[in-house]
Design a protein that fits this description.
Blueprint: H1 3-12, E1 19-24, H2 30-43, E2 50-53, H3 62-75, E3 80-85, H4 91-104, E4 108-112, H5 134-144, E5 148-153, H6 164-176, E6 181-186, H7 190-202, E7 209-213, H8 219-229, H9 235-241, H10 248-268, E8 273-277, H11 283-291, H12 301-305
Parallel strand pairs: 1-2, 1-8, 2-3, 3-4, 4-5, 5-6, 6-7, 7-8
Helix pairs in contact: 5-6, 10-11
Bound molecules: flavin-adenine dinucleotide (FAD).
Length: 306
């Protein structure tokens, strides 16, 4: 059987062994809210393992994150995960947010240190009365209830890590504090992800390291994000989007091809779980999941009749 045929036959059964999750950000305006909900409605039938909602820098979206997560719980069968950071808040304030999630029925938190209040690139100063590092937050959440806890991981090293040892040690602390899963920063070079997973396993860390996949809706924007978070933009990626700034239709096709190539290659390397940075847009992510062999799950008759 050719490699393509083998891949196709593996993907035909893919629904049964692939797990996807989708990340959204809380909307600022009624128009953004409508777009978010259209995206959620489009993606929900793909039955993701969970959907996560980000927490704005410095806790700026505390209420909006809570409102979005609560609405997902109320109006959909999806399992939401709420992102939470240590930035600019006392321990009591963060604990109150965690308790609020527990009371609302949220069972999964993505625990993060967060970026410095003055912006990426400036020195991080923990709040004097707050959680000092992300591993303390993980331990704090664990104490407060029976939450599933995901954390962040960096296949190309976090920009603040002086070396790999420090970087992997930070992940190990988070795992020792009770993290169940790590979700990676986005990346485009699968070799780097694979090398990272090898480093992590060599350090005795055995939780899932779920690749974070960012479809390239807008090349200039992703290049800006990448510069801030230590992700590299390979030359081949820049070349593929060259000259398409004013051609959204072609850009969309190229973006779908690039993302499909990346996820199918990861499937070939044995990856079964994927976290998609949706940017609150369903189109590309839906197409990529379709290529992964995923199909909408029809609601059970009782649910459909309700
Ligand atoms: P940590 O794991 O605590 O640290 C990251 C790295 O920094 C470590 O590996 C370590 O090597 C280095 N480091 C940290 N402290 C020190 C120190 N004292 N000395 C030396 N090195 C140190 N941000 C938001 O504001 N809201 C979100 O909702 C959000 N969601 C995210 C989701 C994912 C999946 C990812 C990957 C990132 C997300 N971020 C979010 C960004 C994140 O907050 C930043 O990357 C932040 O800079 C680090 O947070 P962390 O939890 O990874 O930190």
């Amino acid at each position: 059987m050719s490699d393509d045929a083998k891949r196709a036959s593996r993907l035909l059964g893919a629904n049964s062994h692939l797990n996807v999750s989708f990340e959204f950000f809380p909307p600022k305006t009624p128009a953004m809210e409508e777009k978010l909900w259209q995206s959620i409605e489009r993606l929900a039938p793909l039955a993701p393992g969970f959907v996560s909602v980000t927490y704005g820098a410095g806790g700026s979206t505390r209420e909006r994150t809570h409102a979005t997560v609560s609405r997902i719980l109320r109006e959909t069968p999806l399992r939401p995960a709420a992102h939470l950071t240590c930035v600019a808040a006392t321990r009591d304030e963060v604990d109150a947010v965690v308790r609020g999630y527990g009371e609302a029925g949220v069972r999964h938190i993505v625990a993060l240190r967060g970026d410095p209040e003055q912006g990426v690139g400036t020195a991080y100063a923990p709040h004097p009365g707050g959680y000092q590092r992300s591993s303390d937050l993980v331990a704090g959440i664990r104490k407060l209830g029976d939450f599933e806890v995901s954390v962040a991981a960096y296949p190309e090293k976090h920009p603040e890590s002086p070396d790999w040892m420090t970087d992997i040690d930070m992940l190990k602390r988070k795992v020792d504090a009770g993290a169940d899963r790590a979700i990676t920063q986005f990346f485009f070079d699968n070799d780097r992800y694979e090398a990272y997973v090898e480093r992590v396993r060599a350090a005795g860390i055995d939780i899932p390291i779920v690749p974070g996949i960012a479809p390239v809706h807008n090349f200039a924007q992703i290049a800006r994000f990448a510069a801030g978070c230590g992700a590299s933009i390979p030359d081949w990626l820049a070349q593929r989007f060259e000259g398409l700034d004013d051609d959204p239709a072609t850009r969309q096709l190229v973006a779908a091809a690039v993302a499909a190539e990346q996820v199918l290659d990861l499937v070939d390397r044995g990856v079964t779980d994927f976290h998609f940075y949706t940017m609150n847009r369903a189109d590309l992510v839906y197409a990529i999941c379709h290529l992964l062999g995923m199909r909408p799950v029809k609601p059970a008759p009782a649910e459909a009749a309700a």
